[in-house]
Design a protein that fits this description.
In chain A, 81% of the residues lie in helices and 0% in strands. With 118 residues, chain A is mainly α. Classes of the chains: A mainly alpha (118), B mainly alpha (244), C mainly alpha (81).
């Protein structure tokens, strides 16, 4: 019984991690600019790698190896979000403007306004 | 004409290399001397002869001690070459606000680095000191030490980095790698043994094992601190700012 | 199972190695090289050489990338045609 519960939890967390990795990678390829790509890319590490490592920790039944996995997950989360913040901060200070949706030519007035803003 | 000569020379080289490859024993064959003599000897006798439970450490410090001494000297020489080309950094030129990046680091990055830097250094020391028992050793720990210096300097700026890792001490510590090898190797000469022998029969039998571990530890610490300082010094030397 | 992981890693290794050589942007090339080192570290681990894996991860992915980036910062970013 306990085995079934543990295996179910492991599968749920691992699938969660794989899903976030997939979505993050898709976002990295598809999204338009630095900030949105960072938003997608950091999800890979924090949620994806975090929940996969948590799944491994459950799989090890929180033995000493499992606790190491938890520490690793914590480190990965801290470092990934810090690097994401550092990159976006540097990009903002250097002067990269956030992406704006270009309005189609049906409304020429709004389009020109957007262009001057960005 | 020129092209033909080049092609002919390359063809000759190719023939030579293929002949050399054919003369080699077959790849991965268990008949070669390396597999029939060297590997079993290392695997069976290393713990007893080398004195380290991690066989890799035993091999690089004991059986291949001269090679490792050469490697450490090569790292030291690399630093000397970098310094010959670039020159030492000059702290006086850094009084102006010339930094690596024009962007001031945010509070979050600084806090995280301040929080994690002690753990990075602790991990490096663990790898250096535990190299005889688990994977790791002087080179790996030294690289992590150097990386911690780089992380600190990149985050907190050059002036503070140079203040924390002063040139005065780095000049001495850079030579720690080759120096520790020579110190540990010379000890055997007093017993009338070969250079770089760690098992010394001339002292009391009870202390032999302890002395051997101590000598290996001296070398590991020397390689680690020397390697880390060399990486840090190369980093600082590359950061030198030209006079404007 | 693990063999397929090895094959996948080796394919990634080849792709990154070709990418380093083919990229004209030196900044991008050094970042790809750091990814190459990371994959190489996992390959060393798969070949049961954890000592080398540690060295590769610390030196290849960490230190040399920073040194390359500083060198690029002091010179030019794009490779000449």
């Amino acid at each position: 019984m306990l085995d079934v519960v543990i295996n179910t939890l492991v599968i749920i967390f691992a699938c969660n991690g794989i899903f976030f990795f997939l979505v993050g990678t898709l976002g990295l390829v598809r999204l338009p600019d630095v900030y949105t790509r960072l938003h997608a890319g950091t999800k890979c590490d924090t949620l994806g790698a975090g929940s996969i490592l948590f799944a491994l920790a459950i799989y090890e039944r929180f033995s000493i190896n499992g606790l190491k996995m938890i520490v690793l997950a914590f480190l990965v989360m801290v470092m990934s979000s810090t690097t994401g913040h550092a990159i976006s901060h540097a990009a903002y200070k250097v002067g990269i403007m956030p992406w704006r949706k270009k309005v189609s030519s049906a409304f020429p007035g709004e389009e020109s306004e957007n262009v001057t803003e960005s | 004409m020129k092209k033909g000569v080049i092609i002919f020379a390359l063809f000759l080289l190719w023939v030579l290399l293929v002949a050399a490859v054919i003369a080699l024993p077959p790849m991965g064959s268990s008949e070669t001397p390396a597999y029939t003599h060297v590997v079993p000897r290392y695997l069976e006798k290393e713990v007893e002869e080398g004195g380290a439970n991690n066989i890799v450490t035993g091999i690089i410090l004991n059986y291949r001690g001269y090679d490792t001494m050469g490697e450490v000297t090569v790292i030291f020489t690399a630093l000397i070459c970098v310094l010959a080309v670039l020159g030492r950094e000059n702290i006086k030129r850094h009084t102006s606000k010339v930094e690596l990046s024009s962007v001031e680091k945010s509070v979050i990055v600084k806090s995280v680095v301040r929080l994690l830097a002690p753990f990075i250094i602790l991990f490096a020391l663990y790898i250096i000191l535990h190299g005889a028992e688990s994977p790791g050793g002087g080179f790996q720990g030294g690289a992590i030490l150097g990386a911690s210096v780089i992380v600190f300097t990149l985050t907190f700026g050059f002036t503070l980095g140079m203040k924390k890792f002063p040139l005065k001490y780095r000049t001495i510590l850079e030579s720690a790698g080759p120096l520790s090898f020579f110190i540990s190797g010379v000890v055997a000469l007093f017993c009338g043994l070969n250079f770089l022998t760690y098992m010394l029969p001339c002292i009391n039998h009870a202390y032999q094992d302890l002395v051997r571990h101590l000598l290996l530890l001296i070398i590991e610490i020397g390689i680690g601190i020397g390697g880390g300082t060399v990486i840090g010094s190369i980093f600082f030397a590359m950061e030198k700012v030209e006079k404007e | 199972m693990l063999r397929s992981l090895d094959i996948l890693l080796l394919i990634f290794l080849l792709v990154t190695a070709i990418g380093v050589v083919r990229t004209k942007d030196l900044l991008g090339a050094s970042i790809i090289f750091s990814a190459y080192s990371l994959i190489m570290a996992i390959v060393w681990q798969q070949l049961s050489a954890p000592d080398l894996a540690l060295t590769e991860a610390a030196v290849g992915a960490g230190v040399t990338t920073v040194l390359f980036l500083i060198a690029i910062g002091r010179t030019v970013r794009r490779e000449d045609e």
